[in-house]
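Structure request: Lipoprotein signal peptidase, Streptomyces atroolivaceus.
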Amino acid sequence: MAEAERIIGTPDIPDAEGADGAEPQQASEGPAPAGADEPGSGRGRKRILVLLCVAVLAYLLDLVSKMIVVAKLEHEEPIEIFGEWLKFDAIRNAGAAFGIGEAFTVIFTAIAAVVIVVIIRLARKLYSLPWAIALGLLLGGALGNLTDRIFRAPGVFKGAVVDFIAPAHFAVFNLADSAIVCGGILIVILSFKGLDPDGTVHKD
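Returned structure:
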């Protein structure tokens, strides 16, 4: 009997394919390929594109508004928008946002430049859409005021920023200041929610 089995042989047992010819399934899936969810991937590049679009929009709105203010409103009487509550009043501000620290123009210029560099470096790890919007607002606002620091009088890196939005009982500011403040508030909210720029969520 043993001799007969040796001669006839035993049927082959499929080990690579099932009876229907389908490929075998792995017992468990391994980790995702490296870089699948990194900013270099398609979705990561979209987040960077959102950051750049928001930054360009904020920058252009600030730049155009300042050009109009300088051409039409500077050295003129303030324009009332909502009576005494809100006016357009062109002023030159050598300090930081909202007229703070006018004696440190060069320092504020350097800080703005550093902020821009940090945002650009952080963009390489960006994977969160809300963070892309927040950083875009910061970048656009910082570039808007930095442009004034470089190109406006009294000189390079000492230029005075054009401010014109004048609410009652509040400092005069511009659209770049508004973009910076909105971006900062959004970053605080995202941080409280535990959302990191790379999309990681920290839960308590």
